[in-house]
Design brief:
Layout: H1 4-17, H2 37-51, H3 72-86
Helix pairs in contact: 1-2, 1-3
Length: about 90
């Protein structure tokens, strides 16, 4: 079962990859999807705007960032955590 965060993150990533959201699987990496560093930065900006959160991401050192970009699922999990931290229910 997908939730709104998973759906919106998949849509944002699909837009950067020029794919349909249904073509984005949770086990895929950004590299699998053909998203380069510019597409990654644009995805981060879109995520921040969509969810009204601040993503701890360093574009100069993406692998050492506190924001896990290793797979679509890890991005969804990180966004869920940030939304919960920055917008407590």
């Amino acid at each position: 079962m997908t939730d709104d965060i998973e759906t919106r993150v998949a849509e944002i990533i699909a837009e950067q990859a020029v794919l349909e959201p249904g073509d984005v699987r949770m086990d895929m990496t950004l590299e699998d999807l053909g998203i380069d560093s510019l597409g990654l930065v644009e995805s981060i900006f879109a995520i921040e705007e969509t969810f009204d959160i601040q993503v701890p991401f360093n574009a100069n050192e993406p692998q050492s960032s506190a924001f896990d970009i290793s797979s679509v699922a890890s991005i969804v999990a990180a966004v869920r955590q940030l939304v919960a931290q920055q917008h407590p229910a």
